Amino acid sequence: MRDGREQLTWEDFGEATRQLAREIADDDYVPDLILSVARGGLLVGAALGYALDVKSTWVLNVEFYTGVDERLDVPVLLPPVPELDDLASSRVLIADDVADTGETLRIVKELCSAAADVRCAVLYEKPGSVVAGEYVWRQTDLWIDFPWSAQAPVTGPLALRS
Question: I want to staple 144 with a disulfide (CB 3.0 to 4.6 A). Which of 6, 35, 55, 57 is the partner?
Fold first, then answer.
């Protein structure tokens, strides 16, 4: 932790997703597919997919955060939106990096309501989340610096040199 923020390193990320996978396996939950909430959930979902040997991975693009502790009024789905009506007999594991307010997970779970069983796996869960993840690596009330978003985006030809 630094400057009142939770720091996640790449090494921590590897350990965290492995621990989540172990918790899921120990719970005898065998997902048919992993639905990653883009963007932060992409890495979590991919790591869990490999650790749990789940090859069916889907992505749902949801925009909510616009900056550090700045968000839209409600999460917004961005295209393309996968067909989620065909999940009637499926066990779906929703993967995301953090359940902050929980509104994103709430919407995604509602979209998957046709599935036989829907569960959430997150690296971090904050105390005010309206959705409690079934599989959570760590609880925090701090802002989290993730290794994939700790540096500014690389844009334009001059940025590639710095």
Answer: 6
Using CA atoms, how far residue 148 sits from 15, 46, 77, in Å, is 16, 14, 22
Q: Which residue has the tokens 């997902």?
A: 31
Q: In what order do the strands lie in the sheet with 70-78?
A: 70-78, 57-67, 33-38, 91-99, 117-125, 135-139
Report pLDDT for 159.
Answer: 55
| Residue 76, strand partner residues | 63
Evaluate whether 99 touches 125 at the Cβ level (below 8 Å). Answer: yes
User: For the segment 41-66, what is each residue's pLDDT rounded down to a tens digit?
Assistant: 999 999 999 999 999 999 988 876 65
Cβ partners under 8 Å of residue 44, min gap 6? 17, 20, 36, 95, 96, 97, 121, 122, 123
Distance (Å, whole) CA 93 – CA 7: 25
For residues 72 and 64, the answer to whether their CB atoms sit within 8 Å is yes
Per-residue pLDDT for 39 more than 60?
yes
Say how far apart CA 123 and CA 139 lie, in whole Å. 8
For β-strands 117-125 and 91-99, DSSP reports them as: parallel
Contact 89, 116 (CB under 8 A): yes
The helix/strand count (H/E) of the chain reads as: 4, 8
